[in-house]
What we know:
The chain is mainly α. The protein has helices spanning about 5-10, 15-45, 50-65, 90-100, 105-135, 135-150, 150-155, 160-180, 185-200, 210-220, 225-245, 255-265, 270-280, 280-300, 300-315, 315-330, 360-385, 395-410, 425-455; strands at about 45, 350. Among the domains are: about 160-245, no CATH class; about 255-315, no CATH class. Its main location: membrane.
Amino acid sequence: MLEVSTPKALGRRGWAPGVLRQHAVLMAVVIVALAIRLYYVQTAVVDHPLRGDAGQYFTYARNIVHQQVFSIVSPEEGAPIADNFRDPGYPTFLAGIVALCGDGEAFYTTALDVQAILSAFTVALYALLARRWLGFRSAVVTSLGLTFWPLSITLAGFLLSETLVGFFLAVALWSLQLGLERGTRTGMLISGAAFAAAGLTNAVLAPAAPLLAAVMAWRDKARRTLWICLLIAATLPCAAWILRGTQLPPGLSSSSRIAMNFVQGSWPEYHSAWIASIYRNPNAQATLGLIDGEIRLVHEDRRAGLRAIAERMAREPMRYLAWYASKPAELWGWSIGIGQGDIYVYPTYRSPLSGTGVLRWITDLLYFANPFLMLLAFAGAVITLATWKRREPVLALAMLLAVYATAVFTVLQADARYAAPYRGSEWMAICVAIAGLAGWSREVRRRPRLRDARHS
């Protein structure tokens, strides 16, 4: 049974034997998480790892280091021209590794090792948060869930941004918790900077912290200064990047990428057509041609493009209604839609999660349990937000961020890959749901005994 501890109980300090044992258990789980991730990235072999999104990120990183320009244009294709098609956080992260290791094999292996370490740190931060908010047993479940969750492992083995986003988000939540507990501006500034880093790595998160901080600065007068610190630190870096975008010549931009994702996400056939097109299926290629045509139309004439999308949906309203209603399950589901499928974005060989042994057994178990886990997480998020006044505020925020991300990706593209940074919130929601079910079960068992006591 999982407990939901009160904030007062979670705030006790000391080095009592029980506390030491709890820290030792959580530390052991984190060490296991680190060992699994390092073993995975050093064992699994990705076929042509610098393809698709990863190839674009690598091109940006090389241009930052060698050309001092943020551009998607490969130097082999001509002079790089500044753009803001991709968010700058992950290319800058890769650029730091390129600057240290060059852009050969040492870069690739170092990047994966660093991502494995960041992923393990993310497990540690959510373990600490869950212990603070929900109690020790919930912290164990949350940390174990993240430790063995397959996509949390495999994404560390691709040059993709989700691992870094998840780390920044965990740092932001932990720093916010400490900043509010201790009333320190430093904690709030660090939290705001981490939220900004997450937003600059994936723009979906960019508005979240400034909006929260603005609302809380208005409502929470006693801690207004702290919330203003969060607002400033979370807003200024993103605002600077937006200002840079206004100075660029017309071309590839973040708005064109959003439009592309919106159009692609409005087609129920997109994922299946994308996969089939790899095998030269003519029907799939024709479907992708129609999708590309809508993307061009939206880019050239936004009103005409949106009107064309609306007319397409109006011809089959129930089909599209069902499609959008199913997209949250697509987001929090198991299989990656745009990629190799299952738990892999790119073709991967010698994966410990797909071979034989304990990791394969755990992966299979989680595969069958995932629909049930999704239902528990949904229930836990509803319970947390419905009872937010009795919860730690940052716990409610973590759930709210997951709900917000679900709404955004439902409108745009929904893929299991994109939910990876929010899996810590999911596992804490699962713990809340289990605690709620346990409490309800105790209440049901207690009622007959109370009736018997009254009649005796």
